[in-house]
UniProtKB/TrEMBL annotation:
Keywords: Gluconate utilization, Oxidoreductase. This is Decarboxylating 6-phosphogluconate dehydrogenase. InterPro entries: 6-PGluconate_DH-like_C_sf, 6DGDH_YqeC, 6PGD_dom2, 6PGDH_C, 6PGDH_NADP-bd, NAD(P)-bd_dom_sf, Pgluconate_DH. The gene is gnd. One of its GO terms (molecular function) is phosphogluconate dehydrogenase (decarboxylating) activity.
Length: 293
């Protein structure tokens, strides 16, 4: 298929490459002319056949809203916009309704895979009508992990279903990383255990706590056993907050995820030892910046 891709950063750039490797034609636009295929959104749209499909991978909030607003003026009835960024699910209904005024379809898609998605594929959680999703399905199939039926799921027909699922995924991720980090801090501070990196490495095979996050943490600990080079500070992307807000709205108790979110807030007031491990894991899967100690 031929597809437009807006936003060619760490995720978008790798997605463009994975789509091209699968034989698809991608016209990419980015404000950075060094990575962009065209000089403007309008030029990108002009190169696409009708009906046009444009995938947006820009930061959530105003950047996404303004980009979709510009595309509304450039696209025509029957075209499709896919929001693959980390938008808040409540934005999707508004964007879908706005585009529908011109007969433009909308699909929201939560994308997980970080900087490793180029080689491993991306987990894709999408929302919207089956009719709209069909227009972008060849791209979905190319981006998802190969040789498995998993990794691609239609979360529901309502706009925002995909981003809601991705939001909960990220909330769970917060709690998992917090548990690993607290366990590491205890092992690192005791004199009872001498080889902490290899203890964590031993958990990667046969235990119930094995995971990709654990793999990433082991890599970081083997390179810097006490994570001395990393400051105990971790940002939050916003999705942990939204998960807790949704839990409050629906009266769903979330003690572990809430605590992991508040722990990140604490790290911004004082250097938190456990947060070194979370910062290391975030850098490992998403290329998120770390603060050097």
């Amino acid at each position: 298929m031929e597809i437009g891709l807006v936003g060619l950063g760490k995720m978008g750039g790798n997605m463009r490459e994975r789509l091209r490797r699968a034989g698809h034609t991608v016209v990419g636009y980015d404000r950075n002319p060094e990575v962009s295929d065209v000089e403007s959104l309008a030029a990108m749209v002009d190169k696409l056949p009708s009906p046009a499909v444009v995938w947006v991978m820009v930061p959530a909030g105003d950047p996404t809203r303004s980009t979709i607003g510009e595309l509304k003026e450039l696209l025509a009835e029957g075209d499709l916009v896919v929001d693959g960024g980390n938008s808040k699910y409540t934005d999707d209904a508004l964007n879908a309704a706005s585009l529908a005024e011109k007969g433009i379809g909308f699909v929201d898609c939560g994308v997980s895979g970080g900087v490793w998605g180029l080689e491993n594929g991306y987990a894709l959680m999408y929302g919207g009508s089956e009719q709209d999703a069909a227009k972008v399905m060849p791209a979905f199939e190319a981006l998802k992990p190969a040789d498995t039926p998993d990794g691609l799921v239609h979360c529901g027909p309502k706009p925002g279903a995909g981003h809601f699922a991705k939001m909960v995924h990220n909330g769970i991720e917060y709690a998992m990383m917090q548990a690993y980090a607290e366990g590491w801090e205890l092992l690192d501070k005791t004199e009872m255990v001498e080889n902490v990196p290899e203890v964590f490495a031993s958990w990667r095979t046969g235990t119930v706590v094995r995971s990709w996050l654990l793999d990433l943490l082991v890599d970081q600990l083997r390179a810097d056993e006490h994570l001395d080079a990393i400051k105990g500070y971790a940002d939050d992307s916003g999705e942990g907050r939204w998960t807790v807000e949704a839990a409050i709205e629906h009266a769903v108790p979330m003690p572990a995820i809430s605590a992991s979110l508040f722990a990140r807030f604490v790290s911004r007031q004082e250097d938190d030892h456990a947060m070194k491990a979370i910062s290391a894991m975030r850098n490992g899967f998403g290329g998120h910046a770390i603060k050097k100690d």
